[in-house]
Amino acid sequence: MSEVQSETAAGSEERDVTELVLQDILTGLLPAGTWLKQIDLERRYDCTRPEVRRALDRLSQKRLVAHVPNRGYHVHQPDDRHAKEVGDIRVILETAVADMMVANATPDSIATLRGLARYFDEMTLTGTILEHYEANLAFHRELLLLGGNQELVDLVSEIRQRTSSAPVSQWRTRARIEKSGREHHMMVDALEARDAEQLKRLIALHIRQPTDTPK
Amino acid sequence: MSEVQSETAAGSEERDVTELVLQDILTGLLPAGTWLKQIDLERRYDCTRPEVRRALDRLSQKRLVAHVPNRGYHVHQPDDRHAKEVGDIRVILETAVADMMVANATPDSIATLRGLARYFDEMTLTGTILEHYEANLAFHRELLLLGGNQELVDLVSEIRQRTSSAPVSQWRTRARIEKSGREHHMMVDALEARDAEQLKRLIALHIRQPTDTPK
DNA sequence: GTTACCAATATTGGCGCCAATTTATGATAC
DNA sequence: GTATCATAAATTGGCGCCAATATTGGTAAC
Question: What is the pLDDT of residue A111?
């Protein structure tokens, strides 16, 4: 309420450049291997040189882009081994708190999750890639929150970005997306039934799904 | 070969400023809450303003320092909840690969670990805080490597830094340090005996130890 | 015709200055 | 004597310039 400050003439370029580049990498607009020339980014996001450089430095810290001294930055190409390893880590982390999720689930939180699962389905049909991606994130975030470990929620968000450099290729088939949507609902079902073991199985399957079929 | 370039007159200030600040935070030279004025750091590490700023930005991304706009940066104070949560995450991650550690352990790797455990004990007596800290890191790194997930090794190193902002207070008593040293050897014993369950128990205990006795 | 070398161009990256904001200090009024 | 306000000092943070380095294209020689 009373947001006076966001009425700058330019429009909507108040956001952090790092986030913008991150989104473009995540949505596949900047494919893996692309060289990120500072001048190009400067123009593309209508920002200054230092802003570009800060963004590139941050993203290279997060290992989303690689830095070659005196050559520049390019979008990181995660090899299969890394992708598998990160998947394993996610399975470890997310299944580890399944018991807590079941223990902490209330009718309220289950309803919220059901809503988010439906929202994901909606975005499958009507949303942009980014909206869809974020709907997925929102669902998993809410689910993880039930684990009661805020730090773990943030950590998973972080490492999730670490391999999602090729989300387009991961979600390329509609069949798989719809399967993901159904699995979301099955997870909520398991939560409702207080079946922690089933929930673990579902989570593990859900995460490993994309990487199980490399070609 | 032919490394001519590293013969700069200055001496040994070739290192990255970020690392230097990080070390000083980890070793307790810069206690939690300390305001990190850019001018001070500039003089302290004999570097330029942009270098300082880059270091501060990186460390604030890693949440080791907090950034208050137009006020500056100060060393982050991890509250008890965060510390507990990070501890839990470490237990989850490090015990999750215990089976793999046992499976992958060779006489060679066990010997290496035994050596690192001994080295930690040595540093307890004769090393600096930093050397001691790094000896501990080296042991756990080598142990984790047996898990076969390189990504997990790096991740643990990362989140380990996330709460070690007060390593001094964690390791303040010599009794506790010596207990840690003994536990290292017990872990190697469990590994040698191929007792994964015992190894898990030891790891969990070892990690939770510092935070279990807050006062 | 091909290869090697040199020059021109483009890109990276270091560095310092200046404006904006905040904090500390001192003076004045109550 | 204390509180409040104004002014001054200090600190942050944005921005652009310039040197160092890599790359590309052209030319000449073999």
Answer: 97
DSSP type of residue A32: T
Distance in Å from the first CA to the final CA of chain A: 49
List chain C nucleotides near protein: any atom < 7 Å from a Cβ. Answer: 11-17, 21-23
How many CB atoms are closer than 10 A to CB A158?
Answer: 13
Distance from CA of A58 to the nearest CA of B (A): 7
What interface predicted TM-score (ipTM) does this complex get? 0.84
pLDDT of A96: 96
Report the chain B residue with the minimal C-alpha distance to residue A162: B151
A103 lies within 8 A of chain B by CB: no
B70 CA → C19 C1’, Å: 13
Are A210 and A175 in contact by the 8 Å Cβ rule? The answer is no
CA A173-A164-A187 angle, 5° bins = 65
Domain boundaries, position B149: 80-212
B5 in a structural domain: no
Confidence of residue B167 (pLDDT cuts 50, 70, 90): low
Is residue A96 less than 8 Å (CB to CB) from chain B?
Answer: yes
Q: Which of A75, A97, A113 is the last residue in one of the domains?
A: A75
- For an interface test with A, which of B85, B86, B200 has the most A Cβ atoms less than 10 Å from its Cβ? B85
Three-state DSSP class for B186?
helix
- A149: contact with B, CB 8 A cutoff: yes
CATH number of the domain enclosing B36: 1.10.10.10
CA B27 to chain CA centroid, Å, is: 10
